[in-house]
Design goal:
The complex is a heterotrimer of chains A (about 775), B (about 160) and C (about 450). Helix content of chain A is about 30%, strand content about 15%. Chain A is of the alpha/beta class and about 775 residues long. Chain A starts with about 45 loop residues before the first strand and ends in a 12-residue tail after the last helix. Chain B is α+β, with helices and mostly antiparallel strands and about 160 residues long. Chain B contains 7 helices and 5 strands. The radius of gyration of chain B is 17 Å and the shape is elongated. Chain C has 3 domains: about 210 residues, NADH-ubiquinone oxidoreductase 51kDa subunit (Rossmann fold, 3-Layer(aba) Sandwich); about 80 residues, Roll (Ubiquitin-like (UB roll)), CATH 3.10.20.600; about 90 residues, NADH-ubiquinone oxidoreductase 51kDa subunit, iron-sulphur binding domain (de novo design (two linked rop proteins), Up-down Bundle), CATH 1.20.1440. Classes of the chains: A alpha/beta (about 775), B alpha+beta (about 160), C alpha/beta (about 450). Chains in contact: A-B, A-C, B-C. Chains B and C meet through helix 2, helix 4, helix 5, strand 5 and helix 7 of B and strand 3, strand 5, strand 11 and helix 13 of C. The complex binds flavin mononucleotide (FMN), iron/sulfur cluster and FE2/S2 (inorganic) cluster. The site of FE2/S2 (inorganic) cluster has 12 residues of chain A, from loops.
């Protein structure tokens, strides 16, 4: 006992907040441990570690200070960002003036502290801990998935405790299958509790517990023998040993037999960095253990396991052309020549207004940019659109007022925010990384989270206030927030007033909104947000990896790349000069009008790239049958390819290079990691079609297209080298795009954690988990 | 179905604490006394009462040696064999119980009447060797005393 | 037969302070208590400034009876005066240290004395709520204490506006469910919060950040039972009962190979030899003494040649052991120390919470190794390995349970190495035939 005074750097268990009557189980209630907090406002602390002077922010733990000095202190239970445990005792160091060895992971730096990390005493202690750990460890390293990248192996190598004096019988339990994706091997478990904490504190799922006591302690799943959770697999990744293994990776390969490429996940719009591990031209594993992107180590179930659609044997690998009513395999030459012949024929006969193009939310910026160029200059039509899942143009337009173009929040800024308003959407399902960032902000710096929604979503557990409005009343609610009385929302008036008052007191707020907010309402929301005293930033939530890029690149009937209205003469001139061709100056048909035009017979030819409108727009069977010509470039056979005259097998995200822009407007590079025989990228397809139709575009590589985007698309002047080294670069879009013509152009497909449009259907992993069978919105 | 009296006890226990979950162990223990073990029903009810997820209750159960998920015999013989008792012949007493009841450590007689456990120090060191049958203490044990206890309980 | 056999010994050498009411008729009732100075100290304390109460306790030299022996008043003084979060008093009635059974009679025979002590502690640190954490096995004590609490409340000694002073204090019991580790103060707090009984990282210490994050004083039953007497009779009176810096009396639990086992209240610093011979009446069967554990199984054992020591914290510490919880366990010449160590290790392995590696793996390793060794499977390196393993636990664990296992292990391995060598040589236990149980 000594007279330590209260240290505000520690977050301590508190009584549940009575405020707003919300039951907040919160991540702290179960954790017996503490979270270290760095205090940036206190003067930095200088201490000595192994003879080096190190200056770090007050509140830093010794193990982190050492890391800054390039000194590595081994640790198992310590994990940056998770609460402290002091359990594994691997990080014991000698600190002068302290009677015994201290754990570097729990000791807060103090001015003048003198730390020695490699004294004989400390080294012996670590060796002793390793000997203890190995007593019941099975030493099945040759067949263990973790062999070669095991933190226990590494430490034994370093401190040498390989010879055991342990003569007793090792305890054994058989391996257990917690889910189709997560297996647990008790004897290998060293009880560092990283899995328990990452699930509780990071994911707020709390699917793991600790069973029994003492040497019999074990990790237990929440449903008897099974896990019911988000299946994100973070637990597997943070496990320092091979106790938790992956249902998709186990016993497949050794880590050194794979090649690794850092790229971007292709599922939702958040844009997590991921490292794909390839062996024999197949993806074996995905993770982000090098923390290379804004997602750190985070990946959701789709990112960590859902890439397996790429390996699916149902992939299209040869073009199909319709002959006598049947689709038959053909060569690429035949398919492309047929396409060109049919297109040219129809263009001659019915004119460019009879042709339409539907683009994709997943293809790269380069592909989308060229698709726009192809439609507008080669086909000569503005009948160009895609399935819009968020109203990016309205947001960009609303923020194009003086001093506001930089009010697009980045993914990092969400995690650092102190106040967050989420309007609509269910980020846990639709934007897992954003949900993670929001929880992170709430947990690590008490960010206030406010929710406005028509249903209860899981983030409620972090929320300070939740205003629930009836479905479809988002627009009224926003106007009410902005101060216009909304008679239809009389019942919510007090809540909305309270919310407004709270936000007026916030020094800065990130406002995140889903597809519920579109058109004029976006302008209302932004205008009100900008009028708040604090600094407000915005994010519109769109589905899929490049929905933002599709809008940025102008896959729209009335908007040119960079949100320049088609009606803007100077913008048209600029693109015409770039492309060396004329652009029709009347807006084309939007996607609903295209579909209507097909029904009415006005649209004769449709080109679909990476999209499945039959499913998305719930088209009747035979709707597309009215077309004279349908071309679909796809990965898989779909409801749309069924009717196609030509189906072109496209490459997936793993098989091509290019860039994608996440929902926050940050561009990142995809890296080609493998080949898929028989497929071609949309970019290659477009280049070939353009050439065959008499347009010499002159791009040699994807980077050539990117350079043009950087040079010619407003807001995209991003440094190419940054992209190439794997950074996420924020764009700064501005523009005055035309108003949204109809609300029903924008709708989210409401994918859950376990679905991902078409490709999700072809993922074994996503369909294998029991949770996938639960209704959408089920909270774990 | 948990009894009305137990529900009352739950109400009263939960209200003692500033944080509801503090009541988990007492709730489990009293429920176990009534039900015979911590059943799935008890887990669900306790979790509901204190607003935690069932796994948090299960974690707690695993930790404490007096909480059981499977029913024990009606009379649970808990013989202390820790040092003070050991020095005064607790091992013989334990062996005697084994023979007499015909069961081993952590087993229950087929009729479900008795179970036997070797336990840690019961806090009866000056009355060693000692045991507890359910919550009742028996001290300065001899084989004859054990016989008497068993006969007595059999009559009940 | 159910219930409790009187554990109290009886000796003219006793100095009865906290056990003085034990023999009185209906000693656990409020009536008896009030007739015998009961709640007088509370009245007096409520008329004093809280800081003065703390100072009296500090000056009395009262040291924690739970094991560590920290000055109680000093501990109270670490509680911040101003706290945004509520403060708490927690009474540690988890009594689980092998060889210790002194808190039990205090709660059974004089629960009001404890309750009064807790209320005074609450007043001293200006807390309004307290808990008595009773080990699950002591179920019958919960009923006794709960009844006493109800009496105290109706008598106006507990609850709102105590004795018209304006001071409020709520107190209730809480039950554990079988876990030695929950006696460790921070594990106790987690247990009391409905979590697994894992210890917490210190600092911050409970006096600053304790129960529900509020400043918390945790004291043993015996410690708190002394408080009313100190307040009533003064610091000096209390201090002079014992030896320097070791105020008062203490309950010693004599058990094991001794003729008159029992709990005795003796002045601090009472000589161990006299305790064994004059109070305990020597060893049964006229056998010779081999070893003594002076304060519960966590303390290094003393050999027969080390028993000329005064039983206070400092004197026992000087000869390399600890006064601990007052559990004096006596072993005669026919005791197998290897067997004893095996049993002690069995206990710690069973009770290790499993949170930290050295204790979780080390205690279970020692347990299995020593049981094998004693059972005839001794290997030449075992004793050295066991010593090494013990040292690898010592001082490296999160909470003191690891040390509590390592210290007796080291002392037995060092002081009785000969017995280990003999086991190795014979291939079986040399005492097997000789040991005769007393019962
Ligand atoms: C493993 C372990 C078990 C303990 N068990 C008890 C116990 O059963 N009763 C007790 O009063 N103190 C116990 N203690 C001591 C407490 O941690 C704490 O020091 C004590 O409750 C403080 O009260 P005191 O100052 O009045 O002694 C234990 C300590 C450890 C490390
Ligand atoms: S020393 Fe470690 S494992 Fe042992 S009881 Fe303490 S924290 Fe638990
Ligand atoms: S890393 Fe410090 S104790 Fe585990």
């Amino acid at each position: 006992m000594n007279g330590q005074t209260h240290d505000p750097r520690f977050v301590i268990l508190d009584l549940p907040p009575k405020e707003e009557n919300l039951q907040v189980p919160g991540p702290y209630t179960r954790s017996p441990s503490l979270s270290p907090r760095v205090n940036p406002s206190a003067p930095p602390v200088t201490l000595t570690i192994d003879g080096q002077a190190v200056t770090v922010p007050a509140g830093t733990v010794v193990i982190e200070a050492a890391k800054q000095a390039g000194i590595e202190i081994p640790s198992y239970c310590y994990y940056p960002g998770l609460t402290l445990q002091g359990a594994c005792r691997m990080c014991l160091v000698t600190i002068e003036k302290m009677p015994k060895l201290q754990t570097a992971c729990t000791t807060i730096v103090a001015p003048g502290m003198v730390v020695h990390t490699e004294t004989e005493e400390a080294k012996n202690a670590r060796k002793a801990m390793l000997e203890f750990l190995l007593t019941n460890h099975p030493l099945d390293c040759p067949v263990c998935d973790k062999g070669g990248e095991c933190e226990l192996q590494d430490a034994v190598f370093r401190y040498g405790a390989a010879e055991t004096r342990f003569m007793e019988t090792k305890m054994h339990h058989d391996e257990r299958k917690f889910s189709s994706l997560v297996y647990y091997d008790w004897p290998r478990c060293i009880l560092c509790y990283r899995c328990v904490r990452v699930c509780d504190e990071g994911l707020d799922v709390n699917a793991y517990g600790i069973g029994f006591r003492g040497a019999h302690s074990e990790i237990i799943p929440n449903q008897g023998e099974k896990l019911e959770c988000e299946e994100c697999g973070m637990c597997i990744d943070v496990c320092p040993v091979g106790a938790l293994t992956s249902g998709t990776y186990r016993y497949k390969t050794r880590p050194w037999e794979m090649t690794y490429t850092g790229t971007v996940c292709n599922h939702c719009g958040d844009g997590c960095k991921t490292t794909l591990a390839i062996r024999n031209n197949k993806i074996i594993r995905a993770n982000n253990r090098d923390h290379s992107g804004f997602n750190g180590e985070f990946l959701c179930v789709k990112g960590r396991f859902g890439w397996d659609f790429v390996n699916s044997d149902q992939r299209l690998t040869a073009p199909l052309i319709r002959k006598n009513g049947h689709q038959e395999s053909s060569t690429w030459e035949e398919a492309l020549e047929l396409t060109v012949a049919r297109l040219q024929g129809l263009l001659r006969e019915h004119g460019p207004a009879s042709v339409a193009v539907i683009g994709s939310n997943r293809t790269t910026n380069e592909e989308n940019y060229l698709l726009g160029r192809f439609a507008r200059t080669v086909l000569g039509t503005n009948n160009l659109d895609h399935h819009r899942t968020a109203d990016f143009p309205s947001l960009v337009g609303a923020l194009t007022v003086p001093q506001a173009h930089d009010r697009h929040a980045t993914m990092e800024e969400i995690g650092e925010a102190h106040s967050i308003l989420v309007v609509g959407n269910d980020p846990t399902h639709q934007h897992p990384l954003i949900a993670y960032q929001i929880r992170h902000a709430a947990r690590n710096h008490d960010a206030r989270v406010y929710l406005l929604n028509d249903r209860e979503i899981k983030l409620l557990r972090q929320a300070k206030q939740f205003v629930r409005v009836p479905e479809g009343m988002g627009a009224d609610a926003i106007r009410a927030l902005a101060g216009t009385p909304a008679p239809r929302l009389a019942a919510n008036a007090n809540d909305l007033n309270a919310l407004r008052e709270k936000l007026q007191r916030e020094p800065e707020t990130v406002i995140i909104f889903g597809d519920e907010i579109k058109g004029k309402t976006v302008a209302d929301l932004v205008q009100w947000g900008l009028s708040l005293p604090g600094r407000t930033r915005f994010v519109a939530l769109g589905d899929y990896a490049n929905s933002r890029g599709a809008a940025d690149m102008g896959l729209l009937p009335d908007v040119l790349p960079g949100y320049r209205a088609l009606s803007d003469q100077s913008a048209r001139d600029r693109m015409e000069a770039t492309w060396g061709a004329k652009i029709p100056h009347l807006p084309g048909r939007d996607i609903r009008a295209i579909l209507k035009g097909i029904d009415s017979g006005e649209i004769k030819a449709l080109l679909v790239f990476g999209s499945n409108p039959v499913k998305t727009f719930k088209l009747a069977k035979g709707h597309l049958g009215k077309l004279a010509f349908l071309l679909v470039a796809e990965l898989f056979p779909t409801e749309t390819t069924e009717t196609a005259d030509v189906v072109l097998p496209a490459t997936s995200f793993a098989e091509k290079s290019g860039t994608v822009t996440n929902t926050c407007g940050q561009v990142q590079a995809l890296k080609k990691t493998m080949r898929k025989a028989g497929t071609r990228s949309d970019l290659e397809i477009l280049l070939a079609l353009a050439r065959m139709m008499g347009h010499a575009w002159g791009y040699r590589t994807t980077d050539d297209v990117l350079r043009e985007i950087i040079a010619r698309v407003p807001g995209y002047a991003v440094p190419l080298p940054s992209l190439l080294v794997g950074r996420a670069v924020a764009t700064q879009p501005t523009g005055a795009p035309p108003e949204l013509s109809s609300d029903d152009l924008i709708f989210s497909s409401r994918d859950s954690l376990f679905t991902s449009g078409t490709v999700g259907r072809f993922s074994w992993a996503l369909n294998s988990v029991d949770e996938a069978k639960r209704p959408y919105g089920h909270i774990f | 179905m948990l009894s009305e009296a137990l529900h009352k006890k739950f109400d009263q226990l939960v209200s003692r604490y500033p944080l509801k979950r503090s009541a988990i162990v007492p709730l489990l223990l009293y429920a176990q006394d009534e039900v015979g073990c911590v059943s799935e029903e008890v887990i669900a009810e306790v979790a509901r009462r204190v607003d935690v997820r069932p796994i948090e209750v299960i974690e707690v159960i695993g930790y404490y040696s007096m909480l059981h998920r499977q029913p024990l015999g009606k009379y649970n013989f808990q013989v202390c064999t820790n040092i003070s008792c050991m020095l005064r012949g607790a091992d013989d007493i334990f062996d005697y119980c084994k023979t007499k009841l015909g069961i081993k450590h952590k087993q229950t007689t087929p009729d479900g009447r008795f179970s036997l456990e070797e336990v840690e120090c019961l806090g009866a060191c000056t009355g060693a060797p000692a045991m507890q049958v359910n919550y009742d203490f028996y001290e300065n044990l001899t084989p004859a005393k054990i016989d008497a206890v068993i006969d007595d309980l059999k009559k009940k | 037969m159910a219930g409790y056999n009187n554990p109290m010994g009886n000796s003219p050498l006793e100095v009865k302070v906290i056990s003085k009411r034990f023999g009185l008729p209906d000693s656990m009732s409020l009536k008896t208590y009030v007739q015998n100075e009961g709640y007088e100290a509370l009245k007096k304390a409520l008329s004093m400034k809280p800081d003065d109460v703390i100072n009296i306790v500090k000056n009395s030299g009262l040291r924690g009876r739970g094991g560590a022996g920290f000055n109680t008043g000093m501990k109270w003084s670490f509680v911040p005066k101003q706290s945004p979060k509520p403060k708490y008093v927690v009474c540690n009635a988890d009594e689980s240290e092998p060889g210790t059974c002194k808190d039990r009679p205090l709660m059974e025979y004089d629960p009001h004395q404890l309750i009064e002590g807790i209320i005074i502690a609450g007043y001293a640190i200006q807390s309004n709520q307290g808990f008595i954490y009773v080990r699950g096995e002591y179920r019958y004590l919960l009923d006794i204490i709960d009844r006493a609490l109800a009496e105290a409340q109706s008598g106006g000694y507990l609850g709102k506006n105590i004795l018209g002073s304006g001071f409020d204090f709520a107190l209730c019991t809480h039950t554990g469910a079988g876990a030695y580790e929950c006696g460790e103060e921070t594990a106790l707090l987690n247990s009391l919060e409905g979590l697994r009984g894992y210890p917490r990282i210190k600092p911050p210490f409970p006096a600053v950040v304790g129960l529900y994050g509020g400043p918390t004083v945790i004291n043993n039953v015996e410690t708190l039972s002394n408080v009313p007497h100190i307040i009533l009779k003064g610091a000096e009176w209390y201090a002079q009962l014992g030896s320097p810096k070791n105020g008062g009396t203490r309950l010693f639990c004599l058990s094991g190979h001794i003729n008159r086992p029992g709990v005795y209240e003796l002045p601090m610093g009472f000589p161990l030899r006299r305790m064994l011979e004059e109070i305990g009446g020597g060893i049964p069967g006229g056998k010779k003494l081999k070893a003594v554990i002076p304060g519960g199984s966590s303390c290094p054992v003393l050999t027969a040649s080390e028993i000329d020591v005064n039983m206070d914290y400092d004197s026992v510490a000087k000869i390399g052991s600890m006064l601990g919880s007052g559990g004096v366990v006596v072993m005669d010449e026919d005791t197998c120390m290897v067997n004893l160590m095996g049993r002690i290790m069995h206990f710690y392995a069973h009770e290790s919470c499993g949170w930290c590696i050295p204790c979780r793996e080390g205690t279970s390793w020692l347990n299995h190794m020593i049981e094998r060794f004693h059972g005839g499977g001794a290997l030449p390196d075992d004793a050295d390995t066991a010593l090494d393993v013990s040292y690898n636990i010592l001082g490296k664990t999160l909470c003191p349970l690891g040390d509590a296992a390592a210290m007796p292990a080291i002392s037995i391995l060092k002081k009785f190495r000969g017995e280990f060598d003999e086991h190795l040589k014979l291939g079986h236990c040399p005492f097997e035939k000789k040991a005769v149980s007393v019962a």
